[in-house]
């Protein structure tokens, strides 16, 4: 199918005059007439009835005009969609978030992305541990991840977002809640609730590293997979937990948060995706997410 002939025919059918149609198409009249003749020859039917005074559509021409308009409309729509895809204006992205990012950033992300990339459909998976995020990025289950380095996988591109200070979540009636700040040595003889070692949590390694650096011995009593469960157990008085500062948005009754000091410790938050992923809508989303995270405020201490 020659789309040019199709467009020529539609214009002639709308004008019912070869001279006006040629002017509208910015071409000479003889080539336009020849193109319509070729179209009729290819179809084996007369689409137009021509006289010296007027041009009229035949019954076949009227039927062909309706279908031609639909075809051209679909072609134009497809071209518009292709340009939008190439510009990164449409698409779908699934974002996996570590626990602290789930609670502190998801509301700002969902609002900000919908505002700045309205044609891109976003879905979110919260409470993911970093090893699960890396595996999901590899399989394509998620497209982007808000995760905590270090990431050893060379197939991933990882860009820094921010540094989060560590705090200690303690039961409100615990003796540590009376302190203005807590040191690692203060936790030496305290029951700890940590993220799961079996699932290779980054925060589990961070907490053990803190004790190792100070020579103190951790007393781990509970291991959990989700940050929300961890804080719930703290609220239940089952122990204390070292968590990134954004977790403070989980302001459960019975939980107090105190800064971790001597020295103050931070953990990084980063955004990661498979390096081979070069879709325009993904490339557009990354700087938007980085800006939203940069502008997001931590909860007040």
TrEMBL record:
<comment type="similarity">
    <text>Belongs to the LysR transcriptional regulatory family.</text>
</comment>
<dbReference type="Pfam" id="PF03466">
    <property type="entry name" value="LysR_substrate"/>
</dbReference>
<protein>
    <submittedName>
        <fullName>LysR substrate-binding domain-containing protein</fullName>
    </submittedName>
</protein>
<dbReference type="InterPro" id="IPR000847">
    <property type="entry name" value="LysR_HTH_N"/>
</dbReference>
<dbReference type="InterPro" id="IPR005119">
    <property type="entry name" value="LysR_subst-bd"/>
</dbReference>
<dbReference type="Pfam" id="PF00126">
    <property type="entry name" value="HTH_1"/>
</dbReference>
<keyword id="KW-0805">Transcription regulation</keyword>
<dbReference type="InterPro" id="IPR036388">
    <property type="entry name" value="WH-like_DNA-bd_sf"/>
</dbReference>
<keyword id="KW-0238">DNA-binding</keyword>
<keyword id="KW-0804">Transcription</keyword>
<dbReference type="InterPro" id="IPR036390">
    <property type="entry name" value="WH_DNA-bd_sf"/>
</dbReference>
<feature type="domain" description="HTH lysR-type">
    <location>
        <begin position="1"/>
        <end position="58"/>
    </location>
</feature>
